[in-house]
């Protein structure tokens, strides 16, 4: 039996990047031999084992053939006769199809090292098309390695285009897609993920609501970049530059979906886009089964982001409504994330990336003012039930009036 390091661990070592996960491939072994050595079998799909001590994944070398639609439609063949080269050729990208033995001798039959040097994300063989998730993976790798100068090879982009047109992307499960999307959004250049998906026609299939924003103009006075798609990408880029969490990045991506619904006669204005977008956001959220906190923040940011921008002009009663909508008393973190998304939206505009955003501190101050209202004295006055709720609201409104006058 011969054991090799494969995939991301080899790629990232050659790139000089930290290696976290190590995947191993085992050539010349049977399942029985692995079990006899104390490896623990995992996964019903493939012959994969966990090392008894390190817990790292060891897979028997295998070949795969597609036998139907979607991820389930695979037959695989693992046996001691399958060679390392046969195992590597079924992999997605040349830079992911290198193996290394314990002496760091490289096996690189598909020229991954050459593509690493050329900064190219290139598919290994036509077998790339057997897993449509790879369209998202390539876009994710493009986002991750954009800063190093990596681009997608034209022939790979063409294959991704064919896959996107074939209807295969629809067969992906929400869970697999979301895993790629969420990882891609957390990269340093998440906007590249969206750009690559758009370039190969996958965005139109996966998130037509985002794709529809390209070519939609906005008023140049507020949006020097004009195009709503370009703006969305800049907002996402700002979110990454400011190290925002996934919730904020997801909300940034979806905050202007309503603008895609504006009739052309109304361009470049987008009246009520904050509300029009809600049904689209709900659909995208559900399509990928996004986690609840991502879903919620995206909806709230769409509905209220223009309130955020106009914070300093809002009447105390409107400020109160905003704070109530966010349940800022019990969910202070969510309101912070809303403020962050608004700030990213304000900065994600051409030439305005460095602008200050006084609305952020103003909103924080308003939340603090409303939160200082104590319930105990109202209870002591005898308020209860709905009357207590009304009394608390009145006190909060008073506090916000005072805050506005003094700020
Ligand atoms: N792989 C593949 N096609 C997929 C998933 C994985 O060909 N749809 C192969 C690639 O060779 C990849 C390896 O399996 O390098 C391990 O996959 P995974 O752990 O998902 O990715 P990594 O390449 O290790 O990358 P990351 O750093 O993102 O984890």
What bound compounds does this protein have? cytidine-5'-triphosphate
- Biggest sheet overview: 7 strands, mixed
The tally of strands reads 11
Count helical runs.
Answer: 19
Can you identify the CATH superfamily of the domain at 1-111?
Beta Polymerase, domain 2
Structural class: alpha+beta
CATH class of the domain at 1-111: Alpha Beta
Residues in helix, %: 40-55%
What portion of residues belong to β-strands? 5-15%
Compute the CA-based radius of gyration.
26 Å
**CATH level-two architecture of the domain at 1-111:** 2-Layer Sandwich
Q: Looking across the biggest beta sheet, what order are the strands in? A: 3-4-5-2-1-8-9
Could you name the key traits of this structure?
407 residues, alpha+beta, Beta Polymerase, domain 2, 7-stranded mixed β-sheet, two-stranded antiparallel sheet, 50% helix, elongated, binds cytidine-5'-triphosphate
In words, what does this structure look like?
By secondary structure, this protein is α+β, with helices and mostly antiparallel strands. The chain has 19 helices and 11 strands. It has a 7-stranded mixed beta sheet. α5 packs across α8 and α13 (273-287) packs antiparallel against α14 (292-309). The model has no long low-confidence stretch (mean pLDDT 95). The chain binds cytidine-5'-triphosphate.
């Amino acid at each position: 039996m011969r054991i090799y390091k494969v995939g991301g661990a080899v790629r990232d070592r050659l790139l000089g990047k930290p290696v976290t996960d190590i995947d191993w491939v085992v050539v010349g072994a049977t399942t029985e031999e692995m079990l006899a050595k104390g490896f623990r079998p995992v996964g019903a799909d493939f012959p994969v084992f966990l090392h008894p001590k390190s817990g790292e994944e060891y897979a028997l070398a295998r070949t795969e053939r597609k036998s139907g639609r979607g991820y389930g439609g695979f037959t695989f063949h693992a046996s001691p006769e399958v060679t390392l080269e046969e195992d590597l050729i079924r992999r997605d990208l040349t830079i992911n199809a290198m193996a290394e033995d314990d002496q760091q001798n490289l096996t690189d039959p598909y020229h991954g090292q050459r593509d690493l040097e050329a900064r190219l994300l290139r598919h290994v063989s036509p077998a790339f098309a057997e897993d449509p998730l790879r369209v998202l993976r390539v876009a994710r790798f493009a986002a991750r390695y954009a800063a190093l100068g990596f681009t997608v090879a034209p022939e790979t982009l063409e294959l991704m285009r064919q896959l996107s047109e074939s209807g295969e992307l629809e067969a992906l499960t929400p869970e697999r897609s979301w895993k790629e999307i969420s990882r891609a959004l957390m990269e340093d250049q998440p906007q590249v993920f969206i750009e690559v998906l758009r370039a190969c026609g996958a965005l139109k299939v996966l998130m037509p609501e985002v794709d529809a924003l390209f070519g939609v103009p906005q008023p140049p006075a507020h949006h020097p970049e004009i195009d709503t798609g370009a703006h969305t990408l800049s907002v996402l880029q700002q979110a990454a530059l400011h190290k925002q969490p996934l919730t904020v990045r997801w909300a940034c991506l979806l905050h202007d979906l309503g603008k895609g619904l504006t009739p052309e006669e109304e361009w470049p204005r987008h009246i009520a886009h904050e509300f029009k977008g809600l049904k689209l956001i709900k659909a995208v959220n559900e399509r990928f089964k996004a986690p609840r906190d991502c879903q919620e923040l995206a909806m709230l940011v769409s509905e209220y982001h223009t309130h955020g921008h106009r914070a300093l002009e809002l009447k105390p009663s409107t400020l109160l409504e905003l704070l109530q909508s966010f349940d800022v008393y019990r969910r202070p973190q969510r309101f912070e994330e809303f403020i962050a998304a608004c700030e990213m939206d304000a900065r994600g505009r051409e030439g305005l990336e460095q602008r200050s955003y006084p609305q952020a501190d103003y909103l924080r101050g308003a939340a603090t003012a409303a939160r200082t209202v104590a319930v105990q004295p109202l209870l002591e006055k005898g308020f209860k039930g709905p009357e207590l709720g009304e009394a608390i609201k009145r006190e909060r409104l008073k506090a916000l009036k005072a805050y506005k006058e003094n700020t």
